[in-house]
């Protein structure tokens, strides 16, 4: 730009020096230029448009770098990191973190208990061990959790730190399984055969006693039918209802008193089933005495052979009949095949 200005100034001075003084003064007032051209010397033109192009030939103007207006390329997305297996705590929830903390505290308490080496300690010492391992705030809850999980056994104010030793002591004091296994191994074949024979005889006695009781029940039903028919005859043919009404009332009261006396004597509910069980026990004892069945020997053989005594309800045919009827093998309430 400075070179262009120097060139224009040099041309101006050259033109002024070549002209005469007369013409110079005339040209000062009379300009040789068209009317449409501005009254500005050629070297005074503002370098606009074509003039800028003409004047700028050979001149390196600074150009606007349009490449800088292009938006920058988006930054590459960060690569997804694989979850580190060694740091799972970042994906834990609050509940899971609490669970892990509780498990850690319980394990620390178990370690303290193992280090103590004691078999049983007072509850205060046990609570102190838990507080030392998990802190004073979480100590009581950890002690309760150890008790509920079976890691220790709390009995009153004593805490057994070795439950396996307690189990062994109980097994030594009450050797149930060992005694049962030993009894099963020491069963005498002769006793077993005698027990089978007595069981068959007792089953026959039970059937005979049940048959006698059923006979009594049928007799009772016959008596009730005859009594009802006689009352109907007296009410509608021989006498009137005014006479039979108090008689029926007193007869019903007598039945109620008989049921009450039955309950006081047998301590059983005055029902048909209770009556059957009571009569069956009486008939069974009577038949056993008649046939010379040794009930005491029978119970000894059962204990020697390891056969458990049946429940009291299952000793009567009514209970057996009820179970058989539920399974579909019995067609009568008080009869079992």
TrEMBL record:
Q: Short name of one Pfam family for this protein?
A: MCU
List keywords of the entry alphabetically.
Answer: Calcium, Calcium transport, Ion transport, Membrane, Transmembrane, Transmembrane helix, Transport
Localization per Swiss-Prot or TrEMBL: Membrane
Tell me the superkingdom of the source: Eukaryota
BP GO terms, sorted: calcium import into the mitochondrion; mitochondrial calcium ion homeostasis
Show the GO cellular component annotation of the record.
uniplex complex
Topology in membrane: Multi-pass membrane protein
InterPro entries this protein is in? MCU_C, MCU_fam
Gene Ontology MF, one: uniporter activity
Query: Where are the membrane-spanning stretches?
Result: 217-237, 243-263
Domain called Calcium uniporter protein C-terminal: residue spans: 137-301
Family from the record: Belongs to the MCU (TC 1.A.77) family.
| PANTHER family named among the record's database cross-references | CALCIUM UNIPORTER PROTEIN 1, MITOCHONDRIAL (PTHR13462:SF31), CALCIUM UNIPORTER PROTEIN, MITOCHONDRIAL (PTHR13462)
In Swiss-Prot or TrEMBL terms, this protein is called Calcium uniporter protein 4 mitochondrial
Q: What is the species of this protein? A: Zea mays
């Amino acid at each position: 730009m400075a070179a262009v200005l120097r060139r224009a100034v040099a041309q101006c001075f050259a033109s002024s020096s070549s002209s005469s003084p007369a013409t110079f003064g005339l040209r000062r007032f009379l300009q040789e230029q068209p009317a449409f051209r501005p009254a500005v010397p050629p070297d005074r033109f503002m370098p606009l448009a074509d003039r800028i192009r003409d004047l700028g030939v050979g001149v390196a103007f600074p150009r606007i770098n349009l490449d800088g207006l292009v938006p920058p390329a988006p930054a590459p997305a960060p690569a997804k990191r694989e979850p580190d297996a060694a740091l799972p705590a970042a994906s834990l929830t609050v509940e899971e973190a609490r669970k892990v903390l509780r498990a850690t505290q319980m394990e620390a308490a178990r370690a303290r208990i193992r280090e103590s080496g004691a078999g049983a300690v007072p509850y205060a010492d046990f609570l102190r061990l838990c507080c030392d391992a998990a802190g004073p705030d979480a100590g009581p809850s950890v002690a309760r959790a150890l008790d509920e999980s079976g890691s220790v056994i709390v009995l009153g104010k004593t805490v057994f730190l070795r439950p396996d030793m307690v189990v062994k002591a109980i097994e030594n004091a009450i050797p149930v399984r060992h005694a049962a296994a030993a009894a099963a191994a020491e069963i005498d074949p002769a006793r077993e055969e005698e027990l089978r024979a007595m069981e068959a005889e007792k089953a026959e006695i039970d059937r005979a006693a049940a048959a006698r009781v059923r006979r009594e029940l049928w007799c009772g039903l016959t008596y009730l039918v005859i009594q009802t028919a006689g009352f109907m005859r007296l009410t509608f043919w021989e006498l009137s209802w005014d006479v039979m009404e108090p008689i029926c009332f007193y007869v019903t009261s007598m039945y109620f008193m008989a049921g009450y006396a039955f309950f006081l004597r047998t301590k059983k509910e005055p029902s048909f089933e209770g009556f059957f069980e009571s009569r069956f026990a009486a008939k069974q004892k009577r038949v056993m005495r008649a046939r010379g069945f040794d009930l005491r020997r029978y119970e000894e053989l059962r204990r020697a052979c390891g056969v458990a005594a049946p429940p009291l309800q299952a000793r009567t045919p009514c209970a057996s009949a009820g179970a058989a009827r539920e399974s579909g093998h019995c067609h009568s309430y008080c009869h079992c095949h």
